Amino acid sequence: MNHLDIIKTKDGSISLKSSEFKEPFHCSLGAKKEALEKFIYPSDLKNYERSKNLFTLDVCFGMGYNTACLMEELHNHKISLNWWGLEKDKSPLTIALNKDIYTSGWSNETLSNLKAIQCLNHWKTKSGEGQMLWGDARQQIHLIPHEIKFDLIFLDPFSPQKCPELWTEEFLKTLSRKLSKKGRIITYCTAAAIRATLRRTGLEIRSILPTNLHLRDWSIGTIASKDFEIEKNTANSVNLWQSLTQMEEAHLKTNASIPYRDPHGKSSKEEILKRRAIEQQSSNFEATSSWKKRWINTKSN
C-alpha cells in the first residue's frame, strides 16, 4: 500500500512523499515554485493569447499544482482552457484539498475546479472545461478523442527509474502524436534516455533554464516541440530555455540514452527496467561514467 507523508517545502507550500516510489512529489525548494519554473513559465502563455482555446494535457496530475498554477495564470491572459488530466491515484488531491495551507493558495474558481475534478472527474466554467481520466495513463490516454491535439503536455511522473512505465519509447511516441503543430511537451526530466527518445519521435528539444542566474550551467527540465519557430517572436524566450549544450549532446551518445521499452503498454516496472539493463549491457555506446569523468575534467580545467 502506498503511504503518503505530508512535507513542507521552502516556499511554504506542501508536498507529499510516496512510500511506494520512495520519492517526494516536488523538490524541497517548493512545490508551487517548481510548478511555475518547470512547467508554467516554459509554456510561454502569452503566445496563445490570440487562440480561442488552450488545449492542455496534464500527465500525472498528482496534487494538482501544475494545473492549478496554469488556471491562475490564464486568468491574467484571458485564455479559455480545454483541459484533460491523466492520474492513477486520487488520494494526493484528496489530501491536498483537506489542507488549508493548500486550498488558501488558489482563487475561488481554481479551487472549485480542483474540487470538481476530485468529486465529479470534470469541470466547466465560463473560463473553460476539463476532464480527468483516472487509471493507468498508458491505457487512459486512448480515451481522449483522436482529433484533439494539445498545445501543452505537462509530463510529470516520478523519475524514470522509479516509474519507467510512463517514460517509455512507446508512451512518449503516443504523447508526441497528440501535439498540435506548435505544441510542446514540458517535463522536469533531463535524463538522456528521455531526451533521446523525444528526439527520435521527430521533436526538437531544449533545456529549461533555472531562474537563478548563478545556476545557469544546469538544466532544470526539457521542452520538446515540432516547431520552435515561436522563439523568434518571443523577446524573452532566451531567458527561459536554450539549445542543449555540448555536454548534454554528448550525454545523448552514451548508454544512458538507451530507451525504456514497453512494446504492448502493459509491462511492469521490473520488466521494463530489466529489458533496458540487458540492452545497455550489449550496447556499443560510451559508458555514462566515462562521459561524466570527461566533462568533469573539462569543467575543472
Structure, explained:
The protein is α/β, with parallel strands linked by helices and 301 residues long. Helix content is 34%, strand content 22%. A 9-stranded mixed sheet has the order 6-7-5-4-8-9-11-10-12, with helices on both faces. A 3-stranded antiparallel sheet has the order 1-2-3, with no helix packed on it. Strand 8 (150-155), helix 7 and strand 9 form a beta-alpha-beta unit.
User: What is the succession of H and E elements?
Assistant: EEEHEHEHHHEEHEHEHEEEHHH
Rounded to the nearest angstrom, the radius of gyration is 19 Å
Terminal residue distance: 49 Å
Helix percentage = 25-40%
Observed structural traits:
301 residues, alpha/beta, 9-stranded mixed β-sheet, 3-stranded antiparallel β-sheet, 11 helices, 22% strand, globular
Topology (SSEs and partners):
Blueprint: E1 4-8, E2 14-18, E3 23-24, H1 31-40, E4 53-59, H2 65-77, E5 80-87, H3 91-97, H4 100-103, H5 108-120, E6 122-125, E7 128-134, H6 137-140, E8 150-155, H7 169-177, E9 179-187, H8 192-200, E10 204-208, E11 221-225, E12 241-242, H9 246-251, H10 269-281, H11 288-300
Parallel strand pairs: 4-5, 4-8, 5-7, 8-9
Antiparallel strand pairs: 1-2, 2-3, 6-7, 9-11, 10-11, 10-12
Helix pairs in contact: 1-2
